[in-house]
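User: what does the whole thing look like in 3D?
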Amino acid sequence: MSGTTRKRFGKFVVNFSLFLLILIWTVPTLGILVSSFRHRDAIATSGWWNVLPHREWQPVREIDPKAEGFDPDSVMEIEGATGTFEEFREGIESPDGKHRITWIGNKRIGRVEVQEQVWTVDWNFSLDNYKQVWGGQDFEFTKADGTVEIVPGDDMSRAFLNSLAVAIPSTVIPILIAAFAAYGFAWMRFPGRRGMFTMIVALLAIPLQIALVPILRDYKTLELNGTFLAIWLAHTGFGLSLATYLLYNFISGLPREMLESAFIDGASHFTVFTWLILPLSVPALASFAIFQFLWVWNDYLVALVFLGGNPEFELVTQRMAAIVGARGQDWHLLTAGAFISMALPLLVFFLLQRFFVRGLLAGSIKG
Amino acid sequence: MKRWFSILVLLLLVVFTLTACGNETATTEAPTAAPTKAPTEEPTKEAPDVDFAVMPGGFLEKALTGEYAGTTVTVDGAMEGNDPDGVKFDRGVAAFEEATGIDVNYIGNKEFEATISVRVDAGDAPDIADFPQPGKVTQYVQKGVVVDVTSWMSEEWLSQQYNQSWRDMATINGVEAGVFHRFNGKSLVWYPKDDWEAAGYAIPTTWDELMALNQQIADDGDTPWCIGIESGAATGWAATDWTEEMMLRTTSLENYDAWVAGTLPFDSPEVKNAIETWSALWFNDDYVFGGRSSIVSTYFGDSPAPMFEEPPKCWMHKQGNFITGFFPEGAKAGVDYGFFYFPPVDEAYGKPFLVAGDVMVMFNDRPEVKALMEYFTVPQSASGFLEGGGALAAHQTATPDMYGMDMERGIAELVAKATSFRFDGSDLMPGEVGAGSFWEQISSYVAGSIDLDTAVKEIDASWPRP
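Assistant: Here's the predicted 3D structure for the full assembly of 833 residues, as structure tokens:
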């Protein structure tokens, strides 16, 4: 084996395993995507893979067992095949091997089908799920006198706007504060710096759930409950420790010489921060922005506690929880719901993606 | 290149903040506009004609003169504003809002049971909470944060609106903690009506008839029952319903109440007999679609599906009236499916009916809140459910002609014919048992991983004792 073929073979193995991994990772998403275009009853009764070509037994002919006088309590001979009722229920192959004879139903109202195996695909797609998720369900009320009134449901646009109004400031505010803080911790000398920074890192390990009741109590006194300001502040607080820590790691890694020369030229801390640090930390800022945006967009608990007191401010996550119905009877709508609520975060991710990759690599290859 | 990126990102940040401000103003305007609308409506001094009964001398009577117009009452509960139940609830209180000018603000969510304790602990309790499980109200009664409804509603009025059983079910530690609103009937068996008639089966009215029918359907080559108890973290609740049905059918009401209160242990002959009664049916592989082993792994909502295949693969399914929401699209009541009363086992215990419902509990003592509580005592407050289906009105003043749906009316008539009724016992037990060990142990028992004696002992051990 020559060197080049070995190299080529190695490349093939890597590519093949990558392809396999990607396939394994994307199959569930693909399944949900396909399901979201199928009808409710189709989702409930058969798997999404039925959209792929497959072989299925389909009836060619029907026989009425009563008219033919078959006695299901004894051994029967139908179309050349012999067997008991139980065996026919499972299906018996006809002597020529091309057909299957199956008893459908019970002894009382059953029928006999002669079936043939054919290639088929189940391509009965519809946009119903998306329409119902986006447009809301219609409700039917029958009054005592028999008149029917149809009440249309709310569409989802308000939930989308609300979610944006929560997610954007909840992303921007912590980034602004954390960038200042990270700069301070990295490049300014002041007493208690180490202690304070350790505290911030320690806060990373504290679950936010334990803060819910005390914060709610404070908000109650400040009359902030159920306002956007309340949830912005809450998300800012919960996200700030991670933001400060991430940005500190990045900003403290910037070349010292560059900052020193700026100071020698007479730059103040503020000038250095706005003209040097901010532009240089764009990758770190962007990758944190993606994290925070996704977390806030997908958050259900924090929104429920601080914004739940106001039904006007229904968010996408709350909407998703509501569409399945009081007892989960409409769970098939979640398929379409997942893609609708996913659309915006995906857009954000693809727009900021190249910063994201640079952010992950930032600092790893500098000489 | 680098400068390009930084300019781009700075621009992005500016745009972001701009849109944020835009959104902020746009979305905060909407809610402020809504409340200001209410007071501008001229409060009518004379009480408008309303088509619901009003308690004489109460707060609702005053509210109808417009005395509290412009105020807001918040109700928290487990329905979501946009789910079908939330819409039906809103419809029920619309008449109240229109007649009194009081705004009812329903702020439900799916995690109600978790968030209500956070809210009450933080001193941010809603004016009224809509509890689907009265057992959960106990802790708030003990804390003394619940207002007793008898403190202002007259005995005469309450006993006129409610059957004594409903009032007993709302009474906790001697405090009448709330009033019942809507409820679900559970003692119902669903069957595929058209095929059932084609096959010539008869509706069983006694336990012997039911067992004979089971055997007949099995002899005809099908499994009579569709049973599934999988429900995520709540797997097993459907089995607790069967246990409650059997407790009501095989022993006295006193024993049922004692069992729910924790004085009659699970490890008693009565409770074990009740569980064994349904086990005889469940564990017979000829009687259950998919056999015993499939019961625990079948989602309760999907379990009736084989009943709707043509021809059906199973013929009976016992569940509360909400199960119709899971039936296939286009299945028609009275054609594709029907229901009958789950027959009594021992005639000596009459015709009991198992129910579950929502109790309205008042936390904040204000006149407009009291007015709404009074409104909840009339069946018109549940009109959204009566006209839209899905639940019944708990009030004894609800007449069959208030129901728009034939099916709900039929269930209401069945409930009216019952000799006794009891609330879903597991919902009244402490959470550790009723929403915990009872579900888990009974599921293990059905799955066959533990025997009945172990299961009942484990449940008894988990009962919280002071």
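In plain terms: The CA atoms of residues 163 and 315 of chain A lie 5 Å apart. The mean pLDDT of chain A is 86.
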